[in-house]
Amino acid sequence: MAEIGKDIEKAKWILEQGDLVAIPTETVYGLAGNALNLSSVTKIFDVKNRPHFDPLIIHVPDIDGAEVYAEGVPTSARKLMNQFWPGPLTVLLKRKSIIPDLVTSGLDTVGIRCPKHDLTQQLLKKLPFPLAAPSANPFGYVSPTKPEHVNDQLGDKIKYILDGGDCTIGIESTIVGFESDLPTIYRMGGLSVESLEQAIGKVYIQTHSSSNPKAPGQLKSHYAPLKKVIVGNIEELLQQHSTSRTALLTFSKDFRHSYQFILSPSASMNEAAQNLFTALRELDKMPIDVILAEFVPELGLGKAINDRLIRAAALG
Ligand code: TXA
Ligand code: MG
After folding, report:
1. Residues in contact with 116: Cβ distance below 8 Å, sequence separation at least 6, in sequence order
2. End-of-domain residue from the set 172, 205, 238
3. Beta bridge pairs of residue 132
4. Does ligand 1 lie within 6 Å of residue 44's CB atom?
5. Residue range 123-150: average pLDDT?
6. Does ligand 1 have an atom closer than 6 angstroms to the CB of 56?
7. Which atom, in ligand 1's list, is nearest to the CA of 104?
């Protein structure tokens, strides 16, 4: 198992040696390595069992940090970075050649994120390189929102988990690109569509999966627990699956079912987002065969939650 601790100097030292450290962010835990070091980046792909065609995003301490690795930053991107960084927003920008091909899977854009978490901010400020960090889970599985989630799955493959407690947002960053100067959401996430549109007006949404997705997070099946997930009307689903061993994942309603997880008894969307991945992990461990889930209202982070539920159920 990996050591879990709050020692930033230790995390820094391990990263400087070219090894990996799991880092806390406000969205999910990341599996971090030196983005400019090919051997570190290769380790990230290996530990996650992630295909090399799936690009990594890099983490920087501030906007000046982003300018070192990207050029031709569009006005709307700058506006978003000014308003929402540090925060749950990843921007796709034209990359400078200092970023290795392996990081971007050969794409000419690089995803850049400035996370809002005190420990990781301090760490990034001490490092002379950006951190490549995908979510710290095996490829295709549910992202981790607690240090223990990381330890459960990657604990025998990494040395250190920087303990920043529970992630406060609980769902990955929103990814926005600016091809032809049209702000486009490629992944729904912890920054709501409403907040983005308030800042820069209309944004396009292109999160649907295709045979050749721009972001593999757009793949039909992703963020998925091992158990089968079905999303729909819980009452109807319970009737249809009356002979199976079922668990329920609900927004706020208590069905008094033997196995269930209520995302937010008070119907708070932010609390629901915070609990979503813990819920999927806990349900996955229960002695059941199928998880019956319901969509949440499409407000605020509700769109991102529903996006993850669809992918967890591989409904595409
Ligand atoms: O909240 C987050 O973004 C977390 C924390 C750790 O920062 N990170 C995260 O990384 O979710 P990852 O690798 O699990 O998801 C990033 C997504 C992937 O689906 C990847 O395909 C996409 O971003 N991506 C990265 N670079 C891209 C690029 N240049 N163009 C399009 N998609 C890109
Ligand atoms: Mg991921």
Report:
1. 25, 26, 86, 87, 88
2. 205
3. 33, 58
4. no
5. 97
6. yes
7. 29
